[in-house]
Specification:
Elements lengths: L1 H19 L10 E6 L7 E4 L5 E4 L3 E4 L5 H15 L6 E7 L4 E6 L5 E4 L8 H7 L12 E7 L2 E7 L1 H5 L15 E4 L5
Length: about 190
Amino acid sequence: MKYFILIFFMFIMLNFLNAFSENYKIETGDVITITVYEQADLTTKARVDSKGEINFPLLGTVEVKGRSIDEVQKEITSLLEADYLVDPQVNVFIEEYHPKKVFVMGFVNRPGEYELFRDRPTTVLEAITMAGGCKEGASQNGTTIIRMEDDKEVTIEVKITDITSKGYKEKDIAIKAGDIIVVPESFF
C-alpha cells in the first residue's frame, strides 16, 4: 500500500510540474526522468546528450531535443506499446533545466556570463543590469547584441538611452540564450 501511495503521489506531482512546462522544449544538457507505471526497471534518469538524444531501456536511443514533455511521453508510450507493453503509463519530468545564459562584455561593471530568466524573456537592459550596469564613460547608444541565427552572425544595435531616458520600452528587446551583449567605451 505504501508503494502505491508513493507512486500515486509521484504521478500527481509529475503531472502538476509538467503543466508548468508544457510549452518548454527539451534541450541539450537537460536532465529528464522517465517512469513507466508498474515497470520500475524502466525508470530512467538521463542527461540529453549533444545530439539531443537519451538512451532508454528496451528502446535504445530516443531523440528528445526540441520536443515538449507531452511529445516525448507520447513517443515513448507508442514505442513501448508497439513491441513490449500493453497500455504503458509513461511520465516524463524535467529534473534539471540546462541553464540559458547570455554574455555581457565591454564597459559594464561586472562583465561575464549571466543566466536568463526561466519564466519570462530577459531583456537587454535587464542583462546589463545583472552585469552591474554601465560604467561611467560607456557608449550606451553603441550597445550591440551579437546573435547566431541560422548559422550566421547577426548584429543588433540597441540605443540604451532610448529605453532609459525616453521611455521606449519596446526597444528593450528580448535576448536569447547565447547572445553576446557588447557595451563599448565612449571616446568623446
